[in-house]
Each structure stands twice: as structure tokens, then as C-alpha cells.
Write a structure and sequence with these properties.
Keywords: Magnesium, Metal-binding, Transferase. InterPro entries: UPP_synth-like, UPP_synth-like_CS, UPP_synth-like_sf. Catalyzes the condensation of isopentenyl diphosphate (IPP) with allylic pyrophosphates generating different type of terpenoids. Pfam families: Prenyltransf. Belongs to the UPP synthase family. There is one protein chain. By secondary structure, the chain is α/β, with parallel strands linked by helices. It has a single domain, classed as Decaprenyl diphosphate synthase-like (Undecaprenyl pyrophosphate synthetase, 3-Layer(aba) Sandwich). It has seven helices and five strands. Strands 1-3-2 form a three-stranded parallel sheet, with helices on both faces. Helix 1 crosses helix 2, helix 2 packs parallel to helix 3 and helix 3 packs parallel to helix 4. The chain is globular, with a radius of gyration of 19 Å. The model has no long low-confidence stretch (mean pLDDT about 95).
């Protein structure tokens, strides 16, 4: 969800104004995905590298996420959305926010209409390192380490591989996002800044995805004319 700072700068506003305006985009995309019957939606909200930002901006983001959770928790639950947070919610995150995250996770844990994963204090490299450490701690023999067994040691191993990554604002970077899960994802880079991103843009990205041929490294062999 990229472009909050540029959105604010274009309007001669502080960066925090861009973060605040982004709440509408978040809810709009969640509702659009829910209406489309998409079973898994992930939002990259805050990375392990974002802690390097100025303290005032970080503090604002923490409070904004807390207010957003409290404002929309019951609606998300009523929609049948299971909410999960991918990251270290109990280490550097303020205790009050960590409790709200835990409460939302508990409230919605039995919902299955859609799973919403919020990557918050998330780093793809860190997840991979921790999976490797978990394999070592569990004394898994090297010859038994496969892609499947490795993935089982990642956070939320039931999460399927990512099909489509939408990176707003026209930037072309992975930014340490779910590195294992995006190995064969399709990518789209709409130039619209995240605070202006709406359901219509989301549908355009889905239409683009539906028109692509996913081969996963294989080669499509044309069917001879007249044969099925």
C-alpha cells in the first residue's frame, strides 16, 4: 500500500495526513475483495524497515492502526472475515495496540468467509530465517527438508501462495514482502497513490490478472487444429 507520503506532499500536507487518508482505501479494498468472493487477502501495512522512520510518524501509525481496528472490528467480524497479523505484535509494538490486535484475532478466529492477513512489523527475510531456525531446533534431517516441509515452519503455514501482488504508486519493488509466498505471483503496478485507490482500481487489477496465462515455468503446448 504505497504512496501515502507522496499523496500528502502533493497537497502540501504532513506525511501523517496521507496515512490517515489511506484508511478509506483499506476498507474499500477489503469490501471489494469480500464482495468478489476472494478467500485470501493480504495487506502490507508496516515493514520491519519502517521502524527507521521518524518517531513521530511511527507513533502516529501505531495509533492510527489501533483506532482503525477498534472502529471496524465488529464489521469485519459480521462479514465473516478472519483477521490475522503477520509480524511481531508483542515485541516493539505498543502494548495497547498489541492487545487490540490479539482481541481482533480472537474475535474473528472462527470466521471463514475470507482471511485478511495484515502484514504488520513484517519482513520476508526474517520469516525465512526463522523457518530455518525452527527446522534446526526440531532436528529435521537435511535430506528431509523439502519446499513443503520448509513452508510448514513459516508463520501461518496454511496461507496459500500469493496469486497476485498489487503495488500502488507505480513503484517496482518487492520490499521484503512475503518472499517465499510470492515466488510465482503475478504483479501489477497501478500508478494511483494508495490513498486514492478504490474498488474500481482493484477490479481493474483483477481483470488484468484474469487475462494472464500462468505457466509456472512450464511451456504451453498448442493444441493441434481440430483436436481437443
Amino acid at each position: 500500500m504505497d504512496g501515502n507520503g507522496r499523496w500528502a506532499a502533493q497537497r502540501s500536507l504532513p506525511r501523517t495526513a496521507g496515512h490517515k487518508a489511506a484508511e478509506t482505501a483499506v476498507i474499500d479494498v477489503i469490501e471489494a475483495a469480500h464482495a468478489a468472493g476472494i478467500p485470501w487477502l493480504s495487506l502490507f501495512a508496516f515493514s520491519t524497515e519502517n521502524w527507521r522512520r521518524p518517531d513521530g510518524e511511527v507513533d502516529f501509525l501505531m495509533e492510527l492502526v489501533r483506532r482503525t481496528i477498534r472502529k471496524h472490528a465488529l464489521t469485519l467480524h459480521a462479514r465473516g472475515i478472519r483477521c490475522r497479523f503477520l509480524g511481531d505484535s508483542d515485541i516493539r509494538i505498543p502494548p495497547d495496540l498489541a492487545r487490540d490486535i490479539a482481541d481482533l484475532t480472537t474475535l474473528t478466529r472462527d470466521n471463514r468467509r475470507m482471511t485478511l492477513t495484515v502484514a504488520f512489523d513484517h519482513g520476508g527475510r526474517r520469516d525465512i530465517v526463522r523457518a530455518a531456525r525452527s527446522l534446526i531446533r526440531n532436528r529435521v534431517p537435511a535430506e528431509q527438508v523439502t519446499e513443503e516441509s520448509f513452508a510448514h515452519h513459516l508463520p501461518y503455514p496454511d496461507t496459500p501462495d500469493v496469486d497476485l501482488v498489487i503495488r500502488t504508486s507505480g513503484e517496482h519493488r518487492i520490499s521484503n514482502f512475503m518472499l517465499w509466498q510470492v515466488a510465482y505471483a503475478e504483479w501489477t503496478f497501478p500508478h494511483v497513490l494508495w490513498p486514492d485507490f478504490r474498488a474500481t482500481h482493484f477490479w481493474e487489477c483483477l481483470d488484468s490478472y484474469r487475462g494472464r496465462e500462468r505457466r509456472f515455468g512450464a511451456v504451453r503446448i498448442p493444441t493441434p487444429t481440430g483436436k481437443s
